[in-house]
Amino acid sequence: VYVFTDCVFAFLPGLGFCYSIINGPANVTVLAGAEARFNCTVSVGWVILIWLSNGNPVLTVINSQGAVETSDRFTSQNYTSSNGFTSELIIHNTQLSDSGKIECSTQQPTESSFAFLSVQVNGSLFIKNNTLTVKENKTVEIVCEALGWAPAPDISWMTNDSFIDKSRYVTQRSQGSNGLHNALSILTLTLTNTEVLTCLADIEALPNPQNATVTVFFVNSTI
After folding, report:
1. pTM given for the model
2. Distance from the CA of 125 to the CA of which of 14, 24, 29, 106 falls in 20 to 30 A?
3. What residues contact 20, with CB distance under 8 A and at least 6 apart?
4. Residue 57: beta bridge partners?
5. DSSP structural state of residue 103
6. Count of other CB atoms within 10 angstroms of residue 56
7. How far apart are CA 62 and CA 65, in angstroms?
């Protein structure tokens, strides 16, 4: 038997093979509870392909018999083309603990390719008062609270479809329970008119920021 790089050749029929990973998985970011999908394409001649999550085998695909699934949360779909074979790992009902390294590994020869899964949690967002009243020349503080997020969300404020300057508010972040994060943002303003203010919380997995609004009624001191 002669070994050249990742290829093994033998003079006995059926013992020669040469294959490799053509395209490995790509990084994925999803909200908790959603599906995460990873693709791994190997060239013709492959024998065994193993998927690992944070170093633990979760699914094995054998050329001669197909996928061997040991958990309902980790399933696969397979696609064959003239260029090779693609295994798609599907992680169902993703959990925060699933975050980490997702690896596609072949055997005989051993080769691997990996990507990272980021599972994020969309928490709650609220402003403590739905309406506020402020008098002329008086400063008002508006508190927006984000609870149970992962990672900690980016907080911003808007009024009249325009973002408020960051110097107008202070945001404090804290570690919550079960790996979740909280954020408390305090906006300080002196108004001259009644305004609708919006607090926005954003993480990468959200298609649009979550928002909470408050109407602040301006009252002229002469009235």
Report:
1. 0.83
2. 29
3. 6, 42, 43, 106, 111
4. 52
5. E
6. 9
7. 6
